[in-house]
Every structure is written in structure tokens, then in C-alpha cells.
Design brief:
By secondary structure, the chain is an alpha/beta fold. It is built from eleven helices and eight strands. It has helices at about 15-25, 30-40, 60-70, 80-90, 115-130, 140-150, 160-170, 170-190, 205-210, 225-230, 235-250; strands spanning about 10-15, 45-50, 75, 95, 135-140, 155-160, 195-200, 215-220. The chain has an eight-stranded parallel beta barrel with strand order 1-2-3-4-5-6-7-8, surrounded by eight helices.
């Protein structure tokens, strides 16, 4: 399998626009406005994680995104009955199942699919039947990829956080080893017929090696872009990420 048609897609995660809004309990900055700017700046989709504790994105945000977006919504959620019901009500283009712990600052690792194979298979079946593309957010780990394939996921999103952390810490040998693991697992997942996405912690400094993997068709990037937007503006921050991705792919 060697056909990698089309350009690399960029999904912009708008969670942390809501984080800033919620810090003051105000109505601004508005994540929906951020989503529209992201669309205009070249985002191919919008990602939003409705957490169980609603610490950033709210139910009203999801309602608004479904009503106003002209690009697909990638709805990140934990594998709970409440989130399944919300997803089935909205039927977004894509649903990405992520691990979630109340005490974590952000999603800390990939979903443990192999240990919960039976439960997750039953959990995602109604989502697939409703027409959602189901993605599983996992570490670049062969048993987890195999399990994601067995339960019927159409997509995996490889967790790039460890690679990005190692780069930031200056541990370049370990970073390169993690990058190689990501490369191998992207190819392995593609060989199983899974669509391969990647994300978490990606910056201007770390995106190009990941964007160069021919099997990866989508990157989801959020926190860094919202941070850069403080200095550059959201549109220019996204446009620069888009440029680097296209350069890596060329």
C-alpha cells in the first residue's frame, strides 16, 4: 500500500481559546470565532475536546461548532456513556477517543486499547453506525495499534508528545529514537489499512519530521498555535504551521 493522495491535512484544536475565556468566566475569547479564523487561515478541520469536567470546551461550544462550521469537526472525548450520547446526538464527522483523568493538565498518554478491547469495541460500534469516523488516540505501540484495528477503528492518531518533550529537553538521541518509533508505527498502521493521524505538543520546531511521514494524512495541533496567536495573531500562526507542513511534504 503506497498511495498517499492529497495534501497533509491540518486540524486546529481550539480548546485553549476556551481555557482563556473560562479563566475569567466571560464570553470572550469565543472559540467559535477562533474556529472561523482557523478555517480562513487554511485549517482543514477543527478539533475540540469536550472533557467530563468541562474545563475548557462547553456543551454550548459543541452545539455552536456543529451549527456553524463549514469544515469537519473532530470531536475528542473519553469513552463514557455521557460522551457517547452527545456524539450520537450531533453525529460529527469524526470522533476521537482519548484517555482522560481528572487530575491531569492535558491528555498525558495514549488510550490503553489492548486492555479494554471488548468494552471499546462495543463502545465505538454505535458511533460507526451513526456515520462518524472513529479515531483512537494511542502511543506508537504495535499491540495498541493492532488492538485499535481489531475493534473496528478506522483511524489512529499517534501521540507525538514524548517526541516533542524529548526535543524540548535537549535529549536529542532519545528524541530521534522516538521519532523512528513513530515512523515505524505509522507505516505499520497504514499496512493494516488504518488511516494515520498524529498530534500532541507539535511546534514549529518539531512538526516537519512528523509531517514528512508519507503515511500520515492529518496533524492535529492546538496549544502551541493558541500560544503563538498571542504574539502573531491566530491566522498568521496557523498559516506558518501550514507552510512548514507543506514544505516538509514537498
Amino acid at each position: 500500500m503506497t498511495s498517499y493522495a492529497g495534501r497533509l491535512r491540518l486540524g486546529v484544536n481550539i480548546d485553549h481559546v476556551a481555557t482563556v475565556r473560562n479563566a475569567r468566566g466571560s464570553a470572550y475569547p469565543d472559540p467559535l470565532r477562533a474556529a472561523k479564523i482557523a478555517e480562513e487561515a487554511g485549517a482543514d478541520g477543527i478539533t475540540a475536546h469536550l472533557r467530563e469536567d468541562r474545563r475548557h470546551i462547553s456543551d454550548a461550544d459543541i452545539d455552536g461548532l456543529m451549527e456553524t462550521l463549514s469544515v469537519p469537526l473532530n470531536f475528542e472525548m473519553a469513552a463514557t456513556e455521557e460522551m457517547q450520547a452527545i456524539a450520537l446526538r450531533h453525529k460529527p464527522h469524526a470522533v476521537c477517543i482519548v484517555p482522560e483523568k481528572r487530575e491531569e493538565r492535558t491528555t498525558e498518554g495514549g488510550l490503553e486499547v489492548a486492555r479494554e478491547e471488548n468494552r471499546l469495541a462495543h463502545f465505538i460500534a454505535p458511533l460507526r453506525e451513526a456515520g462518524c469516523r472513529v479515531s483512537i488516540f494511542i502511543a506508537p505501540d504495535k499491540p495498541q495499534i493492532e488492538a485499535a484495528h481489531r475493534i473496528g477503528a478506522q483511524v489512529i492518531e499517534l501521540h507525538t508528545g514524548a517526541y516533542c518533550d524529548l526535543h524540548a529537553e535537549g535529549k536529542f538521541e532519545e528524541r530521534d529514537a522516538e521519532l523512528e518509533r513513530l515512523r515505524e508505527m505509522a507505516a505499520f498502521a497504514h499496512s493494516l489499512g488504518l488511516e494515520v493521524h498524529a498530534g500532541h505538543g507539535l511546534t514549529y520546531d518539531t512538526v516537519k519530521p512528523i509531517a514528512a511521514f508519507p503515511e500520515v494524512v492529518e496533524l492535529n495541533i492546538g496549544h502551541f498555535l493558541i500560544g503563538e496567536a498571542i504574539f502573531l495573531g491566530l491566522g498568521p500562526a496557523i498559516a506558518e504551521m501550514r507552510r512548514l507542513m507543506d514544505e516538509a511534504r514537498a
